[in-house]
Amino acid sequence: MAPVATPFFFYLLSAIMLIGGIAVITRKNPVHSALALIVTLLAQASIYLMLYAPFVAGVQIILYAGGIMVLFLFVIMLVSIERSMKERQFNSQWVVGTIAATALGGLFIAVYTKGTSIFPDHALSTVEENNTQEVAKLLYGQYMFAFEIASLLLLVAIIGAVVMAKKRI
Amino acid sequence: MLAARNSGLVPDMETMLHITTLHYLVLGAALFLLGVIGVLTRRNVVIVLMSIELILNAVNLNLVAFSRLWGGIHGQVFAIFIITDAAAEAAVGLGILIAFFRNKETVNIDEVNLLKW
Fold it and tell me: Nearest Cβ partner of A56 from B17, B47, B64?
């Protein structure tokens, strides 16, 4: 099914994402930052839908907005934020940091303006139906080994988080 | 003539209204830069970790956009792997943060200076 009003929704969702991203890095209260990040992640899930990636969009909402951000909010509640909110929010290298990031942005612009010719003129046809089945076929077929490594990584992360956060083993 | 006009930095109406892969790449680059600025300038560890999530999301957006461009779904599979990595990274990072807060009673990243010479 062809998407409707793609430019309108693209610019709307891009604006939501960028405003959310700016709010993440400028808010004083970490809870506000986390909520802005959730808005950004949800807008990005909608952009995944525009790119014919419904499975990734669902994973984004369930895992990122639902799982990781809840973990963030829990930790924000565990640590005391009153003292950090009274302190200076930006470190003393913020000018250098912003200049370095702007230089990186200039590099991106240069690459994208010089490199457009290597892209195909129009998008090739993505598999639009059975997206979940196709992803599962790749995950359990061609990327089987990487999938197992990812499960090992998650196991190590669980053990590491418990070891780190526990007072006494 | 038309190609020469379209290659300029100032977008004309046609390139504004036809969403190409480049649009998604520019959006991903902007999100990446916001994350980099957050990592480099903020002092609160929680917000630094959230900026890292912004960077990972920018990479994911690029992967899915390229997957759309080349007509396969390998990019989407890699995006799922990166989401897995982000979950592991958030768990370990927040565990470190809790251990750090228990020792120093602060979340200020400038006070992580035990290894500073």
Answer: B64
DSSP annotation string for A96-136:
HHHHHHHHHHHHHHHHHHHGGGGS-SSPPPP--SSHHHHHH
Kindly state the tokens that stand for B45.
Answer: 């560890």
**What is the ipTM, given to two decimal places?**
0.88
* Dist CA B27 CA A105 (whole Å): 12
Residue A120 lies in a domain: no
Question: Model-level pTM?
Answer: 0.87
Task: Count other Cβ atoms within 10 Å, centred on residue A71.
Answer: 15
Please, are residues A9 and A48 in contact by the beta-carbon 8 Å criterion?
A: no
Residues A85-100: b if buried by 16+ CB within 10 A, e if exposed: eeeebbeeebeebbee
Token pair 């759309």 in the structure block, residue: B68
* CA–CA separation, A24 and A30 (whole Å): 8
Q: How many structural domains does chain A have?
A: 2
For residue range A69-113, list pLDDT tens digits in order: 999 999 999 887 777 777 787 888 888 888 998 899 999 888 888
The span from the CA of B81 to the CA of B79, in Å, is: 5
Mutate to test the interface with A, among B9, B32, B50 (most CBs of A within 10 A): B50
CA distance A18 to chain B (A): 7
Q: Are residues A28 and A87 in the same domain?
A: yes
CB–CB of B71 and A126 under 8 A? yes
CA dihedral B67, A62, A47, B21 (to 10 degrees): -20
The domain in which residue A150 lies consists of 127-169
Q: Given CB atoms, is A63 within the 8 Å cutoff of chain B?
A: yes
C-alpha separations of A127 from A131, A155, B6, B61, B76 in Å: 7, 33, 30, 18, 12
